[in-house]
């Protein structure tokens, strides 16, 4: 299997937070490792775990001078070093809780406790401090319990104290061992906690250069790939051909090039004559989007892969030369007077080593460090109206104009409404200010011709999802400074009604969905689009339905004032039905509410510029209980090629129901046998209880091992294997 090089690469495949296999040095000697990739809005964190329990106790009853705590990681030290060396920043939490157990013996003594990091080096600083500084975090911040010491624990109190913080000098990470001293005195106790290693960013993944002329190139020292070569990189171009890289010998050579707009070529000669492997793409490769190239050559075979296209393989001859002997410098971008490459190359790795294109490009004419235009390749991952924002080393999704958040704008922002609770979003106040102008711009559905202060809407878009079991109720209501309004209601029978009153007609225009009960506790989605007289309504995943306002109806929504969720609390005359539905109010969940470019729930739950427009009655509790289910069910773990356990997962019946008569009969017979056995067991239990009822003995449910346990909780933990599993799971979640 081919694994991605880092969590950063998985994010740029549109993957969300999960466990993934990564291979930091490609096909090098390190091999793949399993890590947790945490995709946040603006960062990607790679997390590697170890087996040391949180709050591991040392000291107490034993009289040993030193206690050595060993941390065993889910990866080798070399694998973790590959992650930390390419990361922009790494950290690891470390904590020492103490009772009469000194830590670093500050201000000037020899430390009682130290930790061992990468390369088996001892370190005498603690979390929140740095190399060469024999202090804890409180010593740096000057807030230790006793100012004479640089660690809280060094004051040697009989009460519990703690020194904790982040170790962030990544060249020293990870913590592989902690040696604890000063635990041999009566009353001395300590507890140690170490978090997982967390690294953010991947400098190698975004190390890029832009070739702006066809004669420009970068040069590096000769490629050492005598018996094996593993070359991978990303490119993006609008040119139809060009040389990616070349290295020459006397007659031997190795070369990768874009031969045409649809062909990538890998050619070499080890003394048996030139060999060329070509991958032909059905789509244009000069589309100014990122494409990945992976070329490998060893004594047995050579291969070339482009993106996810089929791998092209060429077997090596059974006899002849096998060593690739090169003497010239390695040229990236052009070589030997041939037409060079115009565009960007990034993350160029040769035998597991990333070439620093950026640093070399800084001193090379015709080549610029870095590359722009990541959104052309990755902007498609910004969903639900999220805007792709270019960054020097990648991209991010701006979800501010949407009702969603998360790294890809796909996480619903929703809340639970208790009975009687309501939310009001004021579009603007009677006086005009810059803040009002911003709100009106959002309200105007991005129409440049509509400007403040006299805003009238000819069209609007409304979308949200909800779930409730109580009817009737008001889901959403938009009021105005005139008599115009719009409402979405659940009628007494649980049916949905959309109500428009824009003037020109005596009664409001109602759209009734009579054939579906929407108050069934299930999440439902509502999408309403109006353009002039035309209204399109889509419920859940049913086909959209078109409606039209009456010919006499006004088509302008005049002077919108406020949007209400859950209940309408408005001055002036309110429609009689809506007034009746207002009591007791909506109970249930609302999610991803968006009216044009305004997201009132998100404004209430996330601090934004629009938060000042929100007024809430009651306590708004964030919840995704109203989030609508996906249109397409998620890919199963067994079929998802990116799911780490898909190859080894063992699913009973492979997800298929028992289909034939034989299996059904077997199931029935098995059920009858189970009932018979259960009846016999019950009878035996009754007989035993009857025989012993006068013996005067009784049995407790006391856990095994209770005699030796320190407490009842400890006995339960010793006896119940599920208890420790629960602890481990919660620990993992806390660490993540």
UniProtKB/TrEMBL annotation:
Belongs to the neurexin family. Keywords: Cell adhesion, Disulfide bond, EGF-like domain, Glycoprotein, Membrane, Repeat, Signal, Transmembrane, Transmembrane helix. It is a single-pass type I membrane protein. Residues 372-410 form the EGF-like domain. GO terms for biological process: cell adhesion. Residues 207-371, 439-625 form the Laminin G domain. SMART domains: 4.1m, LamG. This is CNTP2 protein. Coiled coil: none annotated.
């Amino acid at each position: 299997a081919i694994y991605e090089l880092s969590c950063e690469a998985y994010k740029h495949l549109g993957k969300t937070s999960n466990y993934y296999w990564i291979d930091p040095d490609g096909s090098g000697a390190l091999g793949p490792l399993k890590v947790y990739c945490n995709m946040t809005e603006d960062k990607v964190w790679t997390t590697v775990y170890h087996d040391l329990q949180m709050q591991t106790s040392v000291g107490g009853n034993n009289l040993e001078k030193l206690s050595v705590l060993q941390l065993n990681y889910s990866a080798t030290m070399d694998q973790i070093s590959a992650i930390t060396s390419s990361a922009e920043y790494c950290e690891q939490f470390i904590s020492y809780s103490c009772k009469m157990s000194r830590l670093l013996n500050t201000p000037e003594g020899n430390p009682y406790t130290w930790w061992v990091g990468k390369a088996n080096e001892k370190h005498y600083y603690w979390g929140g401090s740095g190399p060469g500084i024999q202090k804890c975090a409180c010593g740096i911040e000057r807030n230790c319990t006793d100012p004479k010491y640089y660690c809280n624990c060094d004051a040697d109190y009989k009460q519990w104290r703690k020194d904790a913080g982040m170790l962030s000098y990544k060249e020293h990470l990870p913590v592989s061992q902690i040696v604890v001293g000063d635990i041999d005195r009566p009353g001395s106790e300590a507890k140690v906690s170490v978090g997982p290693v967390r690294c953010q960013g991947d400098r190698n993944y975004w190390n890029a250069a832009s070739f702006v002329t066809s004669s420009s190139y970068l040069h590096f020292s000769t490629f050492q790939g005598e018996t094996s070569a593993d070359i991978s990189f990303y490119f993006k171009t609008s040119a139809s051909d060009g040389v990616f890289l070349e290295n020459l010998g006397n007659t031997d050579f190795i070369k990768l090039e874009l031969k045409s707009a649809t062909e990538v070529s890998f050619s070499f000669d080890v003394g048996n004559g030139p060999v060329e492997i070509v991958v032909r793409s059905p789509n244009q490769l000069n589309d100014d989007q990122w494409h990945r190239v992976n070329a490998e050559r060893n004594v047995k075979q050579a291969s070339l892969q482009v993106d996810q296209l089929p791998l092209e393989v060429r077997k090596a001859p059974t006899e002849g030369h096998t060593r690739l002997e090169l003497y010239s410098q390695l040229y990236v971008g052009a070589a030997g007077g041939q037409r060079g490459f115009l565009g960007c190359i990034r993350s160029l790795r040769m035998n597991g080593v990333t070439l620093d294109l950026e640093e070399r490009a800084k001193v090379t004419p015709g080549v610029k460090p870095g590359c722009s235009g990541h959104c052309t390749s990755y902007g498609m991952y910004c969903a639900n109206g999220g805007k792709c924002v270019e960054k020097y080393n990648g991209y991010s999704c701006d979800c501010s104009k949407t009702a969603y958040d998360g790294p890809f704008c796909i996480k619903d922002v929703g809340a639970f409404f208790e009975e009687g609770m309501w939310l009001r979003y004021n579009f603007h106040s009677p006086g005009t200010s810059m803040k009002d102008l911003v709100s009106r711009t959002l309200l105007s559905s991005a129409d440049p011709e509509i400007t403040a202060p006299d805003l009238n809407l000819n069209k609007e878009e409304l979308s949200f999802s909800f779930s409730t079991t109580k009817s009737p109720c008001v889901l959403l209501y938009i009021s105005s400074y005139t008599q115009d309004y719009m409402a979405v209601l659940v009628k007494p029978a649980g049916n949905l009604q959309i109500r428009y009153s824009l003037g020109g007609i005596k009664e409001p225009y109602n759209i009734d969905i009579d054939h579906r009960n929407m108050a069934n506790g299930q999440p439902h989605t509502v999408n309403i689009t109006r353009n002039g007289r035309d209204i399109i309504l889509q419920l859940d995943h049913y086909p959209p339905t078109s409606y039209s306002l009456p010919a006499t109806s006004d088509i302008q929504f005049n002077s919108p004032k406020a949007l209400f969720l859950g209940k309408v609390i408005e001055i002036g005359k309110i429609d009689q039905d809506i007034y009746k539905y207002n009591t007791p109010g909506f109970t249930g969940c609302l999610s991803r509410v968006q009216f044009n470019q305004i997201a009132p729930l998100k404004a209430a739950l996330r601090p934004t510029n629009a938060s000042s427009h929100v007024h809430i009655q009651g306590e708004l509790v964030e919840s995704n209980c109203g989030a609508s289910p996906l249109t397409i069910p998620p890919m199963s773990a067994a079929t998802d090629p990116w799911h780490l356990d898909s190859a080894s997962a063992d699913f009973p019946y492979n997800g298929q129901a028992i289909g034939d008569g034989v299996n059904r009969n077997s199931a029935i017979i098995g059920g009858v046998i189970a009932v018979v056995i259960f009846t016999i067991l019950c009878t035996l239990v009754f007989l035993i209880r009857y025989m012993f009822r006068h013996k005067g003995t009784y049995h407790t449910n006391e856990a095994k091992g209770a005699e030796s346990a320190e407490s009842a909780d400890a006995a339960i933990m010793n006896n119940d294997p599920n208890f420790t599993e629960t602890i481990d799971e919660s620990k993992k979640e806390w660490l993540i």
